[in-house]
Design brief:
The complex is a heterodimer of chains A (392) and B (102). Chain A has 392 residues and is of the alpha/beta class. Helix content of chain A is 43%, strand content 8%. In chain A, helix 1 (21-29) packs across helix 3, helix 7 (219-241) runs parallel beside helix 9 (308-321) and helix 11 packs antiparallel against helix 12 (368-379). The chains are: A alpha/beta (392), B alpha+beta (102). Chain A: Belongs to the peptidase M4 family.
Chain lengths: 392, 102
């Protein structure tokens, strides 16, 4: 494919209206790393598409697809700003759908989903866990819709499901690949896992990653998966509370420990390793820099420990920029995973590299945003692996 | 008369990322069948069970689940939470309630 027929680079977005929307969507999907939402598929399939076969042009195809996805994200941002004037166009990137929540009760057994207890639009239950799960899912949906114009986790209105009262005194919450699952906690160390919005949003953050860049759950890519889920959890909580980066606690799971525990939360993003220091639990083992990176076979290679390093980079970056963390810093992180420019086995250095490339696309080379981001990665000891600029 | 048996269990991961671990030592002189429950028998059942667990071909989509490491009589097994069932689960859950080592 010659230069004339390539889609415009994101930095020259005034040209992007020259590309018909169906073609842009087809290009965005041409490397197989992104699947167009259902409402877009009809129009794509009725129009000429690029050859999907693998071959020597796959590098070109990846570049075309990445740029097309960048352009679509820019479109989303522009449409967000002028939403009233461009309502006819929004359907392309906002397929029809709406908030739809389903909360079930496992009634103390380790099964999912359990018994349906509250569905969308029904009045609050007498059960606080049901209501916190329902409200939490609503906050996550609102956050994605308001900020990123994204219709649920998959961009296509995925029903948000949650199970509460999973197991007996169950000390965990998890994402099972289709829904979030919340335990009640043992009451001695842990309260109910619905008591923290950042934990609810963290679980949904895993869902968002599953539908965007499904980072492999082992070693550094696993720690990135954990870190991005923490970033998402913190941002949803900050957004709902209206806390800017300077005033936010940067804690994950505040309120989850009972009063018997000497600790404030599960993790501190701004000061990893300081969330608790307790006679039973020991000291928070999260590292704050690469020099302290934990090598272990437990926990899929320490995915919940080493996430402290990229967590701190994000928090430092957001605090350096000032204002609301979900705006510039949060958008940048979201764009990296939503455009799928990151390999699923990415390590910290590769991720740092992609965030810097994204900062240049969004804010320009040498911008204050790029400098703040470089400084943040430098502080935590991650050296971005920057490839040569071959085509930018 | 059974040989002595040592069982080490670590439950790692979970959204909290806090590991729990314990050790169960079953002394040789304690005759099998006189404990309540019979941990010797259960440990051998668990071993047979753990040896036959087949990991799924594709990477599981579950996130924040616990991961269990069991060492029974020197033999190591790492099992995701959803695959740890039956006697192996009963044994593992019992051992992490014991104060072995941190």
């Amino acid at each position: 494919m010659d230069k004339e027929t390539q889609p415009p680079a994101a930095s020259s977005h005034p040209r992007h209206h020259a590309v018909p929307p169906y073609l842009l969507a087809a290009m965005a999907a041409c490397d197989g790393a992104w699947e167009a939402p259902e409402s877009m598929r009809e129009i794509i399939s009725s129009q000429p598409t690029l050859d999907k076969a693998d071959g020597p042009v796959s590098v070109t195809r990846t570049r075309i697809a990445t740029r097309a996805r960048q352009t679509m994200l820019l479109d989303q941002a522009l449409l967000h700003e002028r939403s009233t004037a461009h309502q006819k166009l929004t359907w392309l990137i906002e397929p029809t759908g709406r908030l739809n929540r389903i909360i079930s009760d496992a009634q103390g057994v380790e099964i999912t989903p359990g018994t349906l207890i509250r569905s969308e639009g029904q009045k609050p239950s007498a059960d606080i866990d049901v209501n916190r799960a329902y409200d939490g899912l609503g906050h996550v949906y609102g956050f994605l819709a308001d900020l990123f114009k994204r219709n649920s986790l998959d961009g296509s209105g995925l029903v948000l499901r949650g199970t509460v009262h999973y197991g007996e005194h169950y000390d965990n919450a998890f994402w099972d690949g289709t829904q979030m699952v919340m335990g009640d906690g043992d009451g001695e160390i842990f309260n109910s896992f619905t008591s923290s919005l950042s934990v609810i949003a963290h679980e949904l953050g895993h869902g968002l990653l599953q539908y965007t860049t499904n980072l492999q759950y082992q070693g550094q890519s696993g720690a990135l998966n954990e870190s991005i889920a923490d970033v998402f959890g913190a941002l949803v909580e900050q957004f709902v509370a209206g806390d800017d980066a300077a005033h936010a606690s940067w804690l994950i799971g505040k309120g989850l420990f009972t009063k018997a525990v000497t600790g404030v939360a599960l993790r501190s993003m701004i000061e990893p390793g300081t969330a608790y220091n307790d006679s039973i639990l020991g000291k928070d083992p999260q590292p704050a820099t690469m020099a302290e990176y934990v090598k272990t076979t437990e926990d899929n290679g320490g995915v919940h420990l080493n996430s402290g390093i990229p967590n701190r980079a994000f928090a430092l970056f957001a605090k350096a920029l000032g204002g609301n963390a979900w705006e510039t810093a949060g958008s940048l992180w979201f764009n990296v995973i939503a455009t799928r420019t990151l390999p699923e086995n990415a390590d910290f250095a590769t991720f740092a590299e992609q965030t810097l490339l994204q900062a240049r696309r969004d804010h320009g080379a040498g911008s204050a945003v790029e400098s703040a981001l470089k400084q943040a990665w430098d502080t935590v000891g991650v050296v971005p692996r920057l490839k040569e600029n071959d085509d930018e | 008369m059974s040989e002595s048996l040592r069982i080490r269990v670590v439950r790692s991961g979970g959204v909290a990322g806090i590991s729990r671990r314990g050790i169960l030592e079953l002394p040789a002189q304690e005759p099998s069948g006189q404990q309540d429950p019979d941990w010797f028998t259960m440990a051998h059942q668990a071993l047979n069970q753990l040896r036959s667990i087949q990991e799924p071909a594709t990477a599981p989509a579950v996130r924040d689940a616990f991961t269990w490491s069991l060492n029974i009589d020197g033999e190591d097994h790492v099992v995701p939470d959803q695959l740890l069932v039956g006697p192996a689960r009963t044994l593992a859950e019992h051992v992490i309630t014991l104060r072995g080592s941190r």
